[in-house]
Amino acid sequence: xxxxxxxxxxxxxxxxxxQVGNFQNETHPKLQWIKCAADxxxxxxxxxxxxxxxxxxLHKVDDWHNCFTDGQWDNKVCNSVDNCTANCxxxxxxxxxxxxxxxxxxxxxxxxxxKFDFSRNVGSRLFFSASKDKYxxxxxxxxxxxxxxxxxxxECGINAALHFVAMDEDGGMARYASNKAGxxxxxxxxxxxxxxxxxxxxxxxxxxxxxxxxxxxxxxxGLLGACCPEFAVWNSNAHSFSMSSHICPGDDYQVCQGKxxxxxxIAPGERYNARCDxxxxxxxxxxxxxxxxxxxGKKVDxxxxxxxxxxxSETKVTQFFIQNGTRIDMPDPxxxxxxxxxxxxxxxxxxxxxxxxxxxxFGLNGGWQTHLKMLSRPMVLAMSINDDHYMxxxxxxxxxxxxxxxxxxxxxxxxxCPIDDNDxxxxxxxxxxxxxVWSNIRFGPIGSxxxx
Length: 452
Ligand SMILES: *[C@@H]1O[C@H](CO)[C@@H](O)[C@H](O)[C@H]1NC(C)=O
Ligand SMILES: *[C@@H]1O[C@H](CO)[C@@H](O)[C@H](O)[C@H]1NC(C)=O
Ligand SMILES: *[C@@H]1O[C@H](CO)[C@@H](O)[C@H](O)[C@H]1NC(C)=O
Ligand SMILES: *[C@@H]1O[C@H](CO)[C@@H](O)[C@H](O)[C@H]1NC(C)=O
Hints:
By secondary structure, this protein is mainly beta. It is built from 7 helices and 33 strands.
């Protein structure tokens, strides 16, 4: 069958739909993980990884013409939401060459940056898939997740993250009929920041009121965003880490518009009107006073690989670490005014917002009960590496909010990274070789995945 014939068939069948291209086959890298049962019996599961749709080449159906370049939509192909949705196709991903993603049997590495041809790529986000077109779903409550991580080259300003998000198992194909790409092409991302940088929201192109980013040459923001609850198991680099729970008024994928989405960059006083708890109830030992716990040469020595175990019980979410055969428990908070709980508890969530003088979005969204509801629903596992054009990841490893007095407000110091060095321009120039390696991922009832 000729190419033009194919194109004709495709567009009759899928008129008005978020399309798939056919220049590059989509071949998901394979990754094994280990599923354990309550009795400690474990089995290997063959899974796949899929690249987020938002990072893919988006071009005119059966044509090399770009729909989206350098942070902008092509205004001929994308002269309306429906035309853009119908005329643009998501392409298969070149995992290693373009994105620097390499999977072994039970490990996967994500390079921070790659250079290829006359172009380059910064950052990536992968989802765990159970099959070609379904994400792997995990229900966290009363379970634990263990993984090994090597982030010794992940320096200041870069975030190597492992999150659970309440995405649809099929990437939104059933919910939104115009989405014909689905989980096979990594569609349907949402999180508690309600990102408006997504090129497709609810199966349609997000072209309305799109504004290219002033700082990120490949990104921008449209009118619509996609919100959903999120449990951030691991935001990290070699200097700091945090774990945090981010709840929303809704349980699953929700579309927001304009200001209703915005988490942090609109006018002061309005900034917490956002729908979800973007800041979250979090635990970062450095921020809580235990500054000698985590880092190169510290108790958890980030110059070498280590294991992170996260346990999700009804009363607490906590983590411990294993390095060189030794179990290292999460330290208690050292700041006055916080209970001695070494993890997320209702009390830690309530008291830290008071101590840090933050609006209580966690409480307003229903607090611990809503958090437990999130942990009781199936979620998608996302792994990413990125720098941050909005907040320079200062909230992770440096000082935020920035205060020019000598007495930073409690909770503003989150790590030892200098404020001025976290700008993506500097980070990309200084650490082009950074990469994170995730391996030996294990999941099962609390106590089943590791002996420690
Ligand atoms: C895609 O896969 C098909 C079937 O396996 C193969 O014939 C074709 O050459 C592949 N196309 C590309 C661009 O790799
Ligand atoms: C959408 O495409 C159709 C068919 O090419 C065209 O007639 C219509 O004018 C386009 N819509 C807009 C808003 O330009
Ligand atoms: C993956 O497993 C196969 C079979 O057990 C082995 O031959 C191969 O070396 C392994 N590859 C890596 C990267 O560990
Ligand atoms: C690991 O532990 C062994 C035995 O306790 C010790 O000899 C070795 O130096 C440790 N290695 C590292 C990298 O800490």
